[in-house]
Amino acid sequence: MSDEWIRIDALAKVYSETKKVTDISFGINKPEIFALCGGNGAGKSTLIKMLTGIMKPTSGKVLLDGSEIDPRSHEFKKLISYMPDEMLFQRQLSGLEVLTFFARLRGIGDVRVNEVLQQVGLYDVRNMQIKQYSKGMQQRLSLAQALLPDVPLRILDEPTNGLDPLWVFRFKEIIEEEKRQGKTIFFTTHILSLVEELADRAAFMEEGQMKICETVDSLVNPNGSYLPLEKVFFNQSSSVYDG
To answer: Between β-strands 184-189 and 33-37, what pairing exists: parallel, antiparallel or unpaired?
Structure first.
């Protein structure tokens, strides 16, 4: 595994005494596939929003190559692409029009747009209006806009929501290829079987706190004998299955 590239250092977001994300610390290597796990309300999306600069933390910091950096800065945003947990597209536009819009924002040409449409299986329906797209097709379009730029870090929030088994499998292939190309993928999920198959490392959040952050191999082989990741997390806390 490569040396640590990004460090999240004691990040916290306090909404109220009972609703907060506190003291989150871990590192992200390059390249690697890092999964952030937990049930609904665990704090995953809040952490993602702090890391992408959408939400300002109450306290804590983010370090890049050992130096503090503001995730809201242009310097940091040039390094990342982001797939939110839900992306609302203009329904009267076509898939091609939507992806071309995001490409223009990044200064990306039409060749790359068509490549990504092929990659997510939407090229043949690129001229169809979004209102005719299924949930899974819209999710693949959201993934497509995150795949467009050539950046070292892709941050994906619940990327497999709404995907059928074929496209969950294809998603894994896409992410593994991204890593082979030197990318780091940081994604959230509550599907632990996906994490076990795909991720290099996994972290588990519960009630706004980080409970575990280890390599997947060490988690599923704690004493030299295999233990499914679902059982590992269930043993830590039964709330892993909430939501």
So the answer is: parallel
**Residue-level pLDDT at 231:** 85
Comparing CA positions, the residue from 140, 134, 139 lying closest to residue 122 is 140
Residues with pLDDT less than 50, the chain? 1, 238-243
Q: What is the pLDDT of residue 237?
A: 62
Other C-beta atoms closer than 10 Å to the C-beta of 161 total 15
Question: 3-state DSSP call for residue 188?
Answer: strand
Nearest to 116 by CA among 187, 177, 164, 160: 177
- Count helices and strands (H / E) in the chain: 9, 10
Tell me, what's the pLDDT at 57? 94
Strand spans (E) along the chain: 4-14, 20-29, 33-37, 59-64, 67-69, 80-83, 153-157, 184-189, 201-206, 209-215
Among residues 48, 2, 77, 32, the alpha carbon closest in space to that of 175 is found at 32
Is-contact 205 42, C-beta < 8 A? yes
- The tens digit of pLDDT for each residue in 197-213 reads 999 999 999 889 998 99
DSSP-derived letter for residue 94 is B
Determine if the peptide bond prior to 84 is cis (ω within 30°): no
Residue-level pLDDT at 18: 74
